[in-house]
Design brief:
194 residues; Rossmann fold; 2 domains; 3-stranded parallel β-sheet
Length: 194
């Protein structure tokens, strides 16, 4: 049974890796990862794409956590009768919600990075916030943060350098926690179950 999966663009490559490793019959439809900068648009974009692909597949699913939609995505999921990834955001999926809660309880000023954010930090953060043109705004944007934690899925030297560059660019110390794919593989398989 081929499943059409509307996926967050930041997770799409990871899901493609899992699909290949597990020999899953999934067609991935990624949405732009920059939607995370406008989470109020995610539910509408997911709804539109589900309407577009629903007749092409026996089943559809959504590879997003809530991602700041405050339940709007769940309303779309209910309308279409499909499943989505669990959790409030991809950090829950990669590191586990209990670990993220513990990190936030110990330091609510934690800024998280994933491999995707490490690779795209300049475009998705610096440019999107206008810091490439107005670097003097950096401290206003990040004054309430105290550290950066990179939740590394597939760490390597190049990504470590990019993570350090990202943390330095916003004036924060970097910590690295290797989490791998966490629950992503199990959750993708769960999307396929009835």
């Amino acid at each position: 049974m081929n499943v059409g999966v509307v996926a967050c663009g930041a997770l799409a490559t990871h899901i493609a890796d899992i699909t290949a490793q597990e020999h899953l019959d999934i067609t991935i439809y990624p949405l732009p990862p920059l939607l995370h900068n406008r989470p109020e648009k995610i539910a509408g974009e997911v709804d539109a794409l589900l309407n577009e692909i629903k007749d092409k597949h026996e089943k559809c699913a959504v590879a997003y956590a809530d991602c700041g939609t405050y339940g709007a995505l769940d309303a779309v999921i209910a309308t279409h009768g499909v499943k989505r990834l669990g959790g409030n955001h991809c950090y829950d999926i990669f590191a586990g919600s209990k670990k993220i809660e513990a990190i936030m309880e110990s330091d609510a000023g934690t800024y998280f990075l994933t491999d995707f954010l490490v690779k795209s930090f300049h475009r998705s953060v610096m440019v999107e916030l206008g810091l490439d043109k107005r670097p003097e705004l950096r401290d206003d944007y990040f004054k309430n943060y105290s550290r950066v934690i990179w939740l590394a899925q597939q760490p390597n030297e190049e990504l470590a350098e990019l993570a350090q560059k990202a943390a330095t660019s916003i004036g924060l110390p970097l910590e690295i926690q290797e989490v791998g794919y966490g629950q992503l593989s199990a959750q993708v398989k769960e999307l396929l179950s009835n």
